[in-house]
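Hey, quick one: can you model this chain's 3D structure?
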Amino acid sequence: MPDITRRHMGALALGAGATVAMRPAAAQAWPSRPVTVVVPWPAGGSTDVLARSVCQNFSTRFGQSFVVDNRSGANGNIGAAAVARATPDGHTLMVTTNGPITNNTLLYRSMPFNPSTDLTPVALLAELPIVLAARSQAPYGNVQELVAYAKANPDKVNCGTPPRGSAAHLAVELLMFRTGIRLNLVPYRGSAPLTNDLLAGAVDMGIDLVTTYLPHIQAGTLKALGVTATAPIPQLPQTLPVQSQGVPDYQATGWISLLGPAHLPEDMVGTLNAASNAYLALPETRAMLPPLGLTPLGGTPTDLTRRMAAEVAQWRPVIQAAQISID
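Sure thing. Here's the predicted structure for all 327 residues.
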């Protein structure tokens, strides 16, 4: 064999060896170590409980530990930014509500990351329906009656809301934006003081996640006016959606999704998406979610991408008209 051919084959062999040497990190079986699943909210809420259930299922499915890491702060931006900066090797993921990946881009003058370019959408997990509720003595029993009363009595209905910029706060802003009514919004730091004041009659109505008001609605001490989902929810099957009560195209729910850093490999995204949908289809999952105030979603990564974009488009004019900012 001529020397040049030997040299050429030797170079090819070295090149192949180099390629193999460079490839293990990409070709290595995933997950090769415990996976951190960031939840940008405190422990104990519905998002955290769902994330821990997903982690337990994935740990069994993939034979490696999936561990929740609660990194709360800045309305979810701190934890989400940490995921955006992580290495896209599938060992750092995030389960979050929609705030940090959609609404915060409109509520904050500056963001530590760009959700549309710094994160990889993986799967929609669940929806968080919101309910409008009124004190039992209120002179309206549904959204249509509320709108009529509020138009006849502008700024006379006191509506308690969770903190500015929250999903529930934005939901009532959207109601005013779409109907032209004026409610006197009373912001609270949390659900507990708002619920106490609503039960005591200090405010006329309130808006919050369905789990907050459900026991009181069932006891008859509060009455449900409407839910913000597009269809009736299992927790309140007799309560009509707002959009079917004369407010067309109304939808204002929170929702939870699974994401990773930008440039997460496509095959990994597909594997995680399939695992998420399989988890959501389990009978035990579907039994667990309603008591948490959750409705299972599912779908493709593209479905999540589209929902993120649609969410920003829906809330931009509402937030601008109400001049809402939280920084």
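One thing worth noting: Confidence is low (pLDDT under 50) at residues 1-27.
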